[in-house]
Amino acid sequence: MEQHRIDQTTRSTSADLVEELLKGSQQAAARLISLVEDRDPRSLGYLQRLSPYTGRAYVIGVTGPPGTGKSTLVDAMTRILRREGKRVGIIAVDPTSPFSGGAILADRIRMQDHSTDEGVFIRSMATRGSLGGLAPATGDAVAILDAMGYDPIFVETVGAGQVEVDIVRTSDSVIVVTVPGLGDYIQTLKAGIMEIGEIFVVNKADHGDAERTTAEIKAMLELAGRQEGWNPPVVKTVALNGSGVEEVLSAVWAHRAYQETNGLLVERRRRRRKEEILRILEEKVRERIHRSTVSTGQLDELAERTLQGELDPYSAADLLYKALFLPGS
């Protein structure tokens, strides 16, 4: 009877939180994102309840080297979108503090002019050691804001450079931001994020040789042999005063129209769903392995045997796999 009351309370709490969120409660959204970041078991039920309300928002990824003004650009685009009456979600992924485990750059401070605007939701998330420029819970946070009706949703990456390719798996359009005067760094972009950009922005165009940087990017895009039918535009901006920002948004909407016309947006989102299912499956398998090996001591035993030279790691992994998933084989 006691367990039944606990289950009823949990379902009631879940329903209340979801209802508050769907009504537009930013407090409910912040609480749910925190639960997702902490991998709280309760978050699964909440996300399942919200799933039917997702899939409407257009997700814009913003990536590029540190110091190029990504946050300033997102802030400037948000101002324009708010004047148009759009509700804007912003997820800013920052490096992890080695002391608290939280985000250390706090984009919410840099965008504090929007802090009292109910039409804007800003959340800083820590990478928590994850490579690829995003936090592990970024996709779930996007789904939460999507269910609330925020559209578009910006996802700003941590700014680590070439390894930030996860953003293409999370967004519908990717903006790569750079600045004049980076020199050889422009060349190194070819090996990483240069290949995933669909709109390129040369920010701080009032400093340095913006024309040369723009020409270099266009030349590299020609050499890269981009997808047929879409030629990524290169837009010069001064995000601090808003110069060129409307052109960036126009390029985003043009890219959206191109994808919708050619069926590419649906296919992109289908791939995203497949990857999301695999990610959830991998987490479940990892949890099962962890629970089983910790409770039985199998992993410790196999590690010791490999240390003593009785087994190689591949054979040990094969034995563990058979014990967990092919019992009796």
Task: Give the gist of this structure.
This protein has about 325 residues and is an alpha/beta fold. The chain has helices at about 1-20, 25-35, 40-50, 70-85, 105-110, 140-150, 165-170, 185-190, 210-225, 245-260, 265-295, 300-305, 315-325; strands at about 60-65, 90-95, 120-125, 155, 175-180, 200, 235.
How would you sum up this structure, described in words?
There is one protein chain. The protein has 329 residues and is α/β, with parallel strands linked by helices. It has three domains: 1-53; 55-262, P-loop containing nucleotide triphosphate hydrolases (Rossmann fold, 3-Layer(aba) Sandwich), CATH 3.40.50; 272-325, no CATH class. The protein has helices at 2-22, 26-37, 42-50, 70-83, 107-110, 138-148, 167-170, 184-188, 210-224, 245-261, 264-296, 298-307, 313-325, and strands at 59-63, 88-94, 120-126, 153-156, 173-178, 199-202, 234-236. Strand 2 (88-94), helix 5 (107-110) and strand 3 form a beta-alpha-beta unit. The radius of gyration is 23 Å and the shape is globular. Residues 1-12, 96-108 and 128-133 have low confidence and may be disordered.
